[in-house]
Structures are given as C-alpha cells and as structure tokens.
Specification:
Number of helices: 8
Helix content: 25-40%
Order of helices and strands: HHHHHHHEEEEEEEEEEEEH
Shape: elongated
Number of strands: 12
Radius of gyration: 21 Å
Length: 311
Amino acid sequence: MKVLYLFTLFFLISSIPSFASAATEEEDVERMSIYKKTAAVSSIPWTYFAAIDQYERQVHDDPPEGRVTAFRPDPLFWNGIDTEPSFFPQGWGDTGDGNKKIDMTNDEDIMWSLGKYLKSYGTSEEDIRIALWNYYKRDLTVQTIMNTAEVFEKFQTVTLTDRDFPLPITANYTYHNTWGDARGFGGRRIHEGTDIFADYGVPVHSTTYGVIEMKGWNKFGGWRIGIRDIYNIYHYYAHLSGFEEDKKVGDVVQPGDVIGSVGSTGYGPPGTSGKFPPHLHYGMYQDNGKNEWSFDPYPYLKRWERIAAKN
C-alpha cells in the first residue's frame, strides 16, 4: 500500500502542467483580426473561434511555429473520407486568404474551414454546441469551449491575464504547502490542494476569469464552488461557510469577485461543520482534452499573493 501511495504521489507531482506561454500583445491583435474576419464571412460570432482556439492552445502547448492560432484540424476533418457514415465525408479544408491554395498550416485557411464546418450546423448556440460535440466527442471539452466563449463575450478581448489571491491580502490568514499530504477521511488519499487558514466569514475571491461550473455540497469539501478558467483549469474552493448570493452556476466571474466565505464545512452529510479549524481549501485541476488531474497550487498562490500585495 505504501509503495502504491508513493508511486501515485510521484505520478501526480510529475504531471504538473507546463502552461502554454502567454501570447504577446501583437499576437493577440493578430489572432483577434483573424477571428473577426472569419466571423464576418461565416456569421458565427468571433468568440467561438477564439474559444476553440484557446482550448487548442492549451491542449497543444501553444500554436505551431509560424502560426498565431493553435487549432490543429483532424486530418479526417480536413481531407474527408470515402466511406459512410461520416460527419466529415467531403473534407472541410478550404482556402480562406484568397490565394486559391488550401494550406493546412495557414491560419486563415484553418479558421475559414472551421467556420464552414460550424455554419453547416447553423448559427445558434445549440447548433454550435452540437457541431463541437460531433468534432470532439467529449462533453467537458464542449462545455469548456462554450464557457470560454461566454468569458470572451463579456470582456470583448482574449487578453485576460490578471489574477488575484483567493483571500483579501489584508485578512489574518496563514498557509503552507499541503498538496500531496496524506488524508484519511473517506479512505486513504492525498490532499489535492492548499489549505489557507483564516477566520470564519472572510470573503473568498475568484482568482481568475472563468465560469462557475459547480456549486453545492460535497461530503469531502462541504459547501464548495468550482470555476473553470480559459486555460482548461478547474479552480476548486471548499469548506465554505456560505456562497455569495448573486453567484450561480453558469455565471462569468473575474479576479477579485467575491464567491463565498471561509468556513469549516464538510466531512459528512449536508450541513456538517466544525470538524476542523476554519480554512479555505484551494485546488487546481488541469484538463488536457482527455484527462483531468490535480497539481500543486502553492507556487501560484505565492505569486498571486505577491502581486496582490503590490496593488
């Protein structure tokens, strides 16, 4: 059992994601130009192209060399196949830059081909959701892209790099690196987050731009809320004493938005509280398009804390 536990811990530590580097301001401007050009000729809002590209940017760790967009069409999507049935019978690869050459490495050709595919299903939100499911065949991927599109729609930009510490920097709190520590409640497992100890009722902030994906009770985390950001990362806030009243599943949030307050709920049926000192359990989970796993949030918390202290 001990060997298995150590192996699991080693695997999780070695799985800490290498985040795609932030695009430069010039790259963001060029990306937006391509998204909006494609939107104009396809009647699909630019936010969907941006959201799909943002998702692919994380899955593939940045765009291929020489490109500013990251969407890498499946060869069957691009070229089509001769057999039926198929969602891509004729192939969607097409030219988008007017040079009459269909190039699978050209940003405008790729985005235009994606636009043709999406428009073939229709232009409503539900039409686009169906088109995405038929391409990715994964519910979480579809929901992540749709959520990211909502974030881009609200803020009208893809340059969303601000972050915030999850508690007010002026609050009385303390924390150290507890990710990977052993936990016993509910069976032997490791701690998938960092505990930030503070008084009951201290406001809990969203650390990132994203969409509230989960809100409610969990026997381990008590009253908890989960936010999926534009980098395919799920942010988990647990042991809350309560939620911010106006925040609900599906809402877009930004760094600094109050989403709840520190408590000591969990380790039992709904309403259980006081089995441990009040604190915020903060976890981060990376999704790579196939799997999702926990990684250590402590280095990010320290960075965001330093930034918050300067502001």
